[in-house]
Galactokinase (Anseongella ginsenosidimutans), 388 residues
Amino acid sequence: MEQTQKIKRTFRELFGASPLIFRAPGRINLIGEHTDYNQGWVLPAAIDKAIYLAIERREDDSIHLFSDDYSEHFETRAGELRRSGKLWPDYILGVVEQFLKDGHSLGGFNIAFGGDIPLGAGLSSSAALECATATALSSLFDLPYSRLDLALKAQAAENEFVGVKCGLMDQYASIFGKKGHLIKLDCASREHDYVPFAASDLRIVLFDTQVKHSLASSAYNRRREECEAGVGLVKEHHPGVSSLRDVSETMLRQYVKPHDETVYQRCSYVVGEMNRLQEACEHLEENNFRQFGQCMFETHYGLKNQYEVSCFELDLLVEMVETRPDVFGARMMGGGFGGCTINLVRAEAAESLAAEIAGIYHEATGMRLAAYFVSIEDGAGCVTASHA
Ligand code: ADP
Ligand code: MG
C-alpha cells in the first residue's frame, strides 16, 4: 500500500498523470537447489517484497523510464532500443524486445518504478522487475499472452538482453505466486501444483551474508557441465536417459562412480535433492515442519560437501542455528558462494535470534548481517483497482 502510493506520487510528479500500477514480487526457494537445469522440481514461493511499477501510454513512440530507488532517468524509442549496458533499464527493455520480436507494435510509454527487494541478495529483484514490466506492458497494450508466456518472456529478456543465463524458476514464481502456498514447479513440463504452507507459528527468515564470491558464475557453468557428463556416462548403458531426472543413485554408482568421483558426487547430490524435495512435500502434507526442516539441513550439507557450492559465511550461518530448538531448518539458498541462508524459525523467537546471530556473524567476519523476515504472497498483478 505504502509502496503503491509512493510510486504513484513519483509518477505524478514526473509525468503529471494518473498511472496504472503493477506489482511483481521477489521469491524464495524452500528446497530444490540446482535441480532446475537438471529437469527436476523446485519449491519456490513469491514473497511480500516486490517491485512496484507505474505505467501509462504516451502519444509518441518514445520510452521514458525512471528508477525511483536510483533516481535515474533513461530514454529510448521502441523503434531503436538502446542498451544501457547491464544496468537497470536493460531488465525493462529486454522485455520490450521480446514483445517486439513477436511482431507486436508497442507504442511509447512512461514508467516509474521502485521497490523493497534487496538487490543482488538472491531474492530475484531482477526477475521481479522483468515480470512487473511484462505484466504491465501486456495489460497496457492488450497483448494475448498467458501467464506462462509472460514468465517465459521475462526469462528470455534476462537470458538474451541482459545476458544472464538463468533458469525459469525466478520468473515463474514471481508470476504464479499464491498467498500461503509454495509452488511445486516441474521444470521439465513447466507445470506446477500449489502446496499449502500452513506454518502460522513459524517465520521464514533470511540471513544475508552480504558476500558474493567471484567463483559463482564459473562454478555454476562447471556444475552444469559435470551434470551433463554424468548423464552422458549413464546414457551409454541406458539410451533413454536424457537428464538426471531419469537417473537413480544405483545407476550413478554403477556407471559414473568408477569413472569420475567428482562427477559422481555432483550427480549424486542432484538425484538425492530431487528425492528429498518429494519427501519434503510429503512432510508438508502432514504439517510436519520439523521433518521438513531436516530436509533443508540435508540439502545444505549436500550443497556443501557433494556439490561444493557453499562458502565459509553460509556454512557459519547454518552451523550457528543448527542446534537451536527454535530453528526447524536452514540452508544456503540460490546458486551459492554467497547470498542468503533461508531459515524456518519459531515465530516468537525470530527477532531475538536474528539479533543474536548478527552479533556472532559480525564478530566472526567483521561484516554486518542483514536479516529479512518474509511472508508468502500472491504473484504479479495490477494493484491500481484495489488501492486507487
Ligand atoms: P537479484 O536478482 O538476486 O536481486 P541481480 O543482480 O540479478 O540480483 O539483479 C539486480 C539488478 O536488478 C540491479 O542491479 C538492478 O539493475 C536491477 N534492479 C532490481 N531491483 C531494482 C530496483 N528496485 N530499482 C532499480 N533497479 C533494480
Ligand atoms: Mg537476478
